[in-house]
Amino acid sequence: MTRSARLGATLPITPMSGCTAGRSRASSPTLATRSFWRLTWPEPPVGTLQLTLIPGMARRGAWRLQIEAVRVATHHRSSGIGTALMNWTVRVAAPALGATLVQLTSDRARADAHRFYERLGFRPSHTGFKLTLDTARQPGL
């Protein structure tokens, strides 16, 4: 077992107080669940990520777990913390939430992050687009 796998099994990953939305899958299939998690090692938090459970029409209504805002404190990078956070997300959080697919986006300029995600088994699959909602200046809308 790798060091990161051992860390992922024992990391003190907890919801960030005041930032967690309740799991809405049971109450409404149209609402996504958002939760913010932090990793304490042992104190203060050294890593965070945001997870959003998204109901889908594709893949026979499969639920997707969107990973965003993955952050590891500068002085803890390259120590296995990021890998452990991602392993926990894929191996513990996603199955517990009923997700059958885990997805994430990463800024094109973050080559190191792309290598990290690919090393974990993620593969580039789509091109994303964003539109900032400023209704006063949106052409054609």
As for the number of domains, it is 1
Uncertain stretches of 5 or more adjacent residues: 1-9, 18-32
* Structural class label: alpha+beta
- The CATH class designation is Alpha Beta
SSE order, as H and E? HEEEHEHEH
Which descriptor suits the 3D outline?
globular
Beta-strand percentage range: 25-35%
- Using only C-alpha atoms, the radius of gyration works out to 16 Å
Fraction in helix: 25-40%
**Global mean pLDDT:** 76
What composes the largest sheet? 5 strands, mixed
Q: Roughly how many Å apart are the termini? A: 53 Å
Treating each run of at least 4 consecutive H or I residues as one helix, how many helices?
4
Strand order of the largest sheet: 1-2-3-4-5
By CATH, the architecture is named: 3-Layer(aba) Sandwich
Number of strands: 5
Descriptive account of the structure:
With 141 residues, this protein is an alpha+beta fold. It has one domain: 3-Layer(aba) Sandwich (Aminopeptidase). It contains 4 helices and 5 strands. A 5-stranded mixed sheet has the order 1-2-3-4-5, with helices on one face. The longest helix is centred in the middle third of the chain and has 17 residues, at 81-97.
Core attributes:
141 residues; alpha+beta; Aminopeptidase; five-stranded mixed beta sheet; 4 helices; 5 strands; 26% strand
In short:
The protein has 141 residues and is an alpha+beta fold. It has helices at 3-10, 58-61, 81-97, 111-119, and strands at residues 13-15, 33-40, 45-54, 63-72, 99-104.
